[in-house]
Amino acid sequence: MRVLAFEDSYDIEALLESAGLKHQISHITQRWDSSHPLEHIAQIRPDVLLLDHYMPPYTGLEVLQLLNEAVAKGNAVRPPTIVAMSSEAGPNAVMLAKGANYQVIKFDLHTLDIWNAP
To answer: What is the pLDDT of residue 4?
Structure first.
């Protein structure tokens, strides 16, 4: 499973590894800012896209909206799973309403059932 995380404060790989999920993830890339998000998504082709809300220069919601627009125009491929993983529930709920598959507080990221998929 390839994972791309847009998160500027916490090491997502370390969070997932500390929860014992190292074997479920074949490759994880973290972008510590959200510049050029569509280029990174196209390059990595993640199975799971993790979006933090509070992150410069684009919020997670803005990245999701850019991705949705590019997919609608045929200029991008949507990752199979998109997770809104801000540290606050409100922004996560908005991203869920705009097309994310899951919402979770980032410190509970390991509890999602996506990590158990074959």
So the answer is: 97
On whether the pTM is more than 0.90, the answer is yes
Distances (CA, A) of 33 to 4, 9, 24, 72, 74: 12, 9, 25, 24, 25
Q: Which residues contact 46 (CB under 8 A, 6 or more apart)?
A: 2, 3, 4, 29, 79
Which tens digits make up the pLDDT trace of 66-110?
999 999 999 999 999 999 999 999 999 999 999 999 999 999 999
Give me the sheet containing 81-84, strands edge to edge. Answer: 27-31, 2-6, 48-51, 81-84, 102-103
Q: Are strands 27-31 and 48-51 parallel, antiparallel or unpaired?
A: unpaired
Q: How far is CA 51 from the centre of its chain?
A: 4
The whole-angstrom separation of Cα 36 and Cα 13 is: 21
CA distance 36 to 20: 31
